[in-house]
Amino acid sequence: MNICLNMFNDELNNLINMKNTLHPFVLIVDDEEDICEIIKFNLESEGFKVDTAYSAEEALRKQLTKYHLFIFDIMMKGMSGYRLADEVRNKKKLKTPVVFLTAKNTENDKLTGFSLGADDYITKPFSVRELIARVKAIMRRPGHQDTEEPVRLKIAGLELDQEKKRLFIEGDKIDLTPHEFYIMMLFLNHTGKVFTREEILNYAWKDNINVLDRTVDVHITRLRKKLRNYGKYIISRSGHGYCFEIE
């Protein structure tokens, strides 16, 4: 029975890993939550991974290098989609494709969007089928087919080499156990997201079904010590789990 269960878990993990590697990761930024959810649902139905933010400010707090496509609304409260695109293109130097989604459809508006490096411009109201078709067309362009996660993740003074399985703090190599490394990989690929102990166990221990929830707490305590000043950014959300968040 245990052998069959382990084989099933191995196959499930393989399918999850294949999906995470082969399917593009899209970030939707729009202050209208209903629109975000509609686009998210339809893109996920087509096999995309999708994340959402309800303001440009929230989007900028995310690890933007992990996304393969951005969909930005232009007219948002606070920072506009134009300013967000400028931050992404000119300050963060990212070449990630950008699609503008907006009710503004004058020629000057479109020229402004394209001057900021937009790859496409879709006006509201829009057809979801057309949006999906345009997103797929962008991802088929040369240079956008490689959808693997970035090999090196850099957040403040932390650098995680996902290929060589190494963590550096201010250039110093930090010795981590395999489980500690996978916990950090989960956190740094999804900064700010809260993970339950069960989710952390499933990711870092994979098919080991005999590990207790308490094991996560023990490893988190050890990680905090090893991360020096960055340990305080592993935050416990009472009743929910853990996240890594740098304000």
Question: What's a concise summary of this model?
Answer:
By secondary structure, this protein is an alpha/beta fold.
Please report the distance between the alpha carbons of the first and last residues.
Answer: 47 Å
Query: What is the count of helical runs?
Result: 9
What's the mean pLDDT score? 81
Secondary structure: helix percent: 40-55%
How does the major sheet shape up? 5 strands, parallel
Might you state the CATH topology name of the largest domain?
Rossmann fold
Q: What gross morphology would you assign?
A: elongated
Structural class by secondary-structure content:
alpha/beta
Uncertain runs are 1-22, 145-149
What pattern of helices and strands is seen along the backbone?
HEHEHEHEHEHEEEEHHHEE
Describe the secondary structure blueprint for this structure.
Layout: H1 2-22, E1 25-29, H2 33-45, E2 49-53, H3 56-60, E3 69-73, H4 81-91, E4 98-102, H5 107-115, E5 120-123, H6 128-139, E6 152-155, E7 158-161, E8 166-169, E9 172-174, H7 178-189, H8 197-204, H9 213-226, E10 234-237, E11 241-244
Parallel strand pairs: 1-2, 1-3, 3-4, 4-5
Antiparallel strand pairs: 6-7, 7-8, 8-9, 10-11
